[in-house]
Amino acid sequence: MGNGVREGQVDFKRQDVEPVLSTHLPPEGNQEKKKVLNSLMSGALAGAVAKTAVAPLDRTKIMFQGESRWLLQNAEAYRLIYRTYLNEGFWSLWRGNSATMVRVIPYAAIQFCAHEEYKQLLGSYYGFQGKALTPFPRFIAGSLAGTTAAMLTYPLDMVRARMAVTPKEMYSNIVHVFIRISREEGLKTLYRGFTPTILGVIPYAGLSFFTYETLKKLHADHSGKLQPSPPERLLFGACAGLIGQSASYPLDVVRRRMQTAGVMGHTYSSILLTMQEIIREEGLIRGLYKGLSMNWVKGPIAVGISFTTFDLTQILLRKLQHSTNGER
After folding, report:
1. Where are the domains of the chain?
2. Around Cβ 182, how many Cβ atoms within 10 Å?
3. Which are the contacts of 257, defined by CB distance < 8 A and separation ≥ 6?
4. What is the pTM of this model?
5. Is 145 helix (H, G, I), strand (E, B) or coil?
6. What is the DSSP letter of 129?
């Protein structure tokens, strides 16, 4: 009897506990890892597709924001694009896009993945687990996601801005930009414009994600469909981009001016002084909102493509995983 009990105890430890640990705990961990990996992959693809689609407009916007009053008075955005094409060739419109990809792929991957995680955390905190968040947590989740991504990838944004406003003879590649800036202007320059970036990304990311999520929820409530169609997703994303970028645009101009100051012959020491100088030299609307009309074209397209690509990629990856699990 005594021996039987001891044998049973040994069997319990070796045969029952180990299967429990290996059968129940890893699947939960694996499920969470798959979810995070799916979000990272979907976000990376979303950012790459969206930014490549609008790269010529993006480069022109950066040049427009960083240039002088003369350019604003004598050339509209489309003329600047055409002049760049004539002087530098068709592919010059995508100059800096390699730096954009180096930045946007990790940025978008982190932002979308962080947004999914923040939604889950806030859902647990506010008691909305498994349900749509209420408006305020919805805004906070987007703001936190954008802030997290911006903080981790900012030097890459600085490099992209420099490559966009300079001739290719000045910086041959991304590594060259880092080396020259570090040697000639100091490592601190890589974070010039960081504060307005963070201040701008809070309303931009917050309103973008808030608007997109809200429109999807309203659509589901009124149509009875669980998921909107791809064209509807593009429309919702376009609205999100329009609202988010309009709200944060002046800080975007300030950020670009501070980032490109070293090569454009200006010195900007703070956000307020930069704003004051822009307003004094170019006016409030024509200075702080320079290039906004172009952004109303570029922004909605980019954000619409980004959100739609992320959602559809997520759906595709889930289906692939389910089919793989079903085969097993």
Report:
1. 88-185, 192-303
2. 13
3. 65, 66, 193, 264, 266, 268, 274, 278
4. 0.75
5. helix
6. T
CB contact at 8 A, 216 and 228:
yes
72: nearest Cα among 283, 309, 298, 328: 283
Could you list the mean pLDDT of each consecutive 10-residue stretch along the chain, which spans 328 residues? 47 44 55 90 95 81 56 54 73 73 91 95 82 89 96 85 73 82 84 86 95 94 90 96 90 81 66 86 83 80 96 92 71
Question: Which amino acid, residue 226?
Answer: L
26: helix, strand or coil: helix
Closest CA to 174 of 94, 104, 102: 102
**DSSP 8-state class, residue 134:** P
The candidate with the shortest Cα–Cα distance to 196, out of 239, 243, 161, 233, is 161
As a whole number of angstroms, the distance between CA 108 and CA 10 comes to 51
CATH class of the region 192-303: mainly alpha
Q: How many CA atoms lie within 13 A of 167 on its CB side?
A: 4
Q: CB atoms < 10 A from the CB of 138, how many?
A: 22
Question: Residue 39: CB partners within 8 Å, gap ≥ 6?
Answer: 109, 112, 113, 116, 117, 314
Is 223 in contact with 236 (CB distance < 8 Å)? no
